[in-house]
Amino acid sequence: MPDYAFMNQRLFEGDEESVARLTEEALAVGRPALEVLRDGLIAAMRVVGEDFKYNRIFVPEVLLAARAMKAGMAVLQPLLTQSEGAASAGTIVMGTVKGDLHDIGKNLVGMMAEGAGFKIVDLGTNTSADEFIAAVREHDADLLGMSALLTTTMVYMKTVVDAMSDAGLGNVPICIGGAPITQEYANEIGAAGYAADAGSAVQLFKRLTAEGGEEVSASVGP
Amino acid sequence: MSGQTLLEALSERVLLSDGAMGTQLQLAGLEPGGCGEAWNLDRPDRVLAIQRAYVDAGSDCLITNTFGASRIMLERHDESRVAEISRAGVEIARRAFGDRPGFVLGDIGPFGGLLEPYGDVPARRVADAFAEQAGALVAAGADAIIIETQTAFEELELAIGAAREEGAACVIASMAFDLMRDGDEVRTMMGISPEAAIEFMHGHGVDVAALNCGTGVDMPRAADTVRRYRSIHQLPVMAQPNAGQPVLENLQVVYKQPPDEMAAGLEGLLAAGVAIVGGCCGSTPEHIRAFRRILDTTSVEVS
C-alpha cells in the first residue's frame, strides 16, 4: 500500500519531483489510477484549499502545491483517460470579465478546480458575454465561472448573467468571485453562487454540479 | 519647489498626500477597464484638473497617474508609449502644484502577474519594465518613487532595485495588507506580515515604509499597522487607507465613507507616528480637505 499521507505531505509542500515519483511508484505496485488521484492528490489539495481559506497558508504555497498536483496528474492522465469511471467532475468555462485584465485569482480557482477533477476551459481575461456563451455551448459546460477585481468591471457580470439567460442557457449555473464580489451581489444579479476563496469555490462547484456524475473526491480523510 | 527635499520636509512636519486617482478618472469619463494612464497624453487636462483639486484641498504630495504605466501593464492595453506616459505623468503633477511648493511622487504599481516560480513571468522582464518606468519618472523630475500596492517581496525587491539604479532620491515602498478571516490579523495576499514587511524594507534601504489599499483595512486598522511597523524600525511611515469598506449600491460596489468620518481616524494615525497620510480607493479631494483641516489644527511631535 503506498504511503498516501507521505504523498499528501509532499504535495502540500509543493515538491513536484517527489509527487511525480510517488505517483509512479503507487501505479507500479498496482494501485488503480483513480485511487492514486483521489487519495494521493485530491485529498492533499483539499487540505491546501482548507488551509488557504483559513489563512494558514497563502497564495505562494497554493501555487506551488497546485504545480505539484499537476506533476502527479501528468503521470496519471494517460491512464485516467483510458479507464472507465474516470468521468471528470464536470466542465467549467471560466474567465475574467470584459474590461478587466486581472487573472491571478481566476487562475488559482482554475488550478484548484482542476485539482478536484474538473475540466477547465479558461478564456483568459477581458472576456465578453458572447465569448462566454460560445464557449459554454462549444464545451457543453456544466458551470460558468466569472472573475472581476475592479468595482467598475464587476457590473459586467450582470450583463453576462442576463445574456446567458437570453441565450437559453439559464440552466447553466454561474459562479462569481473576485475581491469586490459578495454573496449579496451574487444574489442581486442572479448568479447561482459566490465563493470568497479558491477552496470554497471548488466546494461550491461540486455542490452545483453534484447531480451530474459520481463525485470523484468523495469523503477521504486528510 | 521650496528647495527642501521630501526627506527634509518629513523630518519637520507631517505631510499630506492625495486621494484616489482611478475613481476620479472614471468620474471624468474613463470607461471601466480603460487605460487611465494613457490620459496623461490623450486627456492631460482632465488629469491635471483632478490633481489641481487635490492641491487646492491641501495636498503636499501628488502621486503621478502612472500606477499601471509599466511596459507590461501598458502592453495589455496595446499601448506602446511607455516612457512618454510616465514623463507626462510627472509633468502634469508638477503643473498641478503651480507656484506652490509640493512633492511629486512617481508611481509604480504592480506589474499585474506572478513571477517565476509561482507564475510564468521571468524576473528579468519585470526588472527591465520597472527600470524603464523608474528611469522615465526620475528623468522627468519626480521627487521620489513610490512603489504601491505590493504584496510580494520578490516583486518589491525588483522595483526598489530599479528605483535606486535609476537614481531616485527617495524610495517609498507601500504594501497592501488584507484583513484576515479571523478579523484581527493582517497579511498581504502573498502572506507577508507588517513585521516581515518592515524588516525587508529596512534591509533594502527604503526611505519611507508605507501601506495602502487592502481589503478591510480602514483608518484604525491602518494606524495599528503603522504602529507595528514602527515597533520594529523607526523609518518614516506613509499610510493611504481606503475610504472605509466597500458597499453595494445599485449593483455597484462603492466606497462611501464620508470625509469627516474618515478624517476622524486621522488622530489615531498621527498618534501611531505616521509621517505622510493620504487616501486610496474611494477617497476624494473632500476627504483630503478634511484631513488638511485636522492636520492644520493638530500639533504633532515628529519623530
| Coarse morphology of chain A | globular
Give the overall pLDDT of chain A as a whole number.
89
Q: How is the biggest beta sheet of chain B arranged?
A: 8 strands, parallel
The gyration radius over C-alpha positions of chain A equals 17 Å
Q: Mean pLDDT across all residues of chain B, rounded?
A: 95
The helix-strand sequence of chain B is: HEHHHEHHEHEHEEEHEHEEEHHEH
Which CATH C-level class of chain B is it?
A: Alpha Beta
Note the quaternary state here.
Answer: heterodimer
- As a percent range, the share of helical residues of chain A equals 40-55%
List low-pLDDT spans of chain B.
none
Structurally, how many domains make up the residues of chain B? 1
The strand count of chain B comes to 12
Report how far apart the termini of chain A are: 17 Å
Overall geometry of chain B: globular
What does this structure look like?
The complex is a heterodimer of chains A (222) and B (303). Chain A has 222 residues and is of the alpha/beta class. Chain A has helices at residues 4-12, 16-28, 33-53, 59-82, 104-115, 129-138, 156-166, 183-189, 198-208; strands at residues 90-96, 118-122, 143-147, 174-177, 193-194. Chain A has a five-stranded parallel sheet, sandwiched between helices. In chain A, helix 4 crosses helix 5. The radius of gyration of chain A is 17 Å and the shape is globular. The two termini of chain A are 17 Å apart. Chain B is 42% helix and 15% strand. Chain B is built from 13 helices and twelve strands. Chain B has helices at 6-10, 22-27, 39-42, 44-57, 71-75, 82-97, 123-139, 153-165, 194-203, 219-232, 259-263, 266-271, 285-297, and strands at 15-16, 61-63, 103-108, 144-150, 171-175, 178-179, 186-187, 208-212, 237-240, 246-249, 252-255, 276-277. In chain B, the strands form three sheets. An eight-stranded parallel sheet of chain B has the order 1-12-9-8-5-4-3-2. In chain B, helix 9 (194-203) crosses helix 10 (219-232). The longest helix of chain B has 17 residues, at 123-139. The radius of gyration of chain B is 18 Å and the shape is globular. The model of chain B has no long low-confidence stretch (mean pLDDT 95).
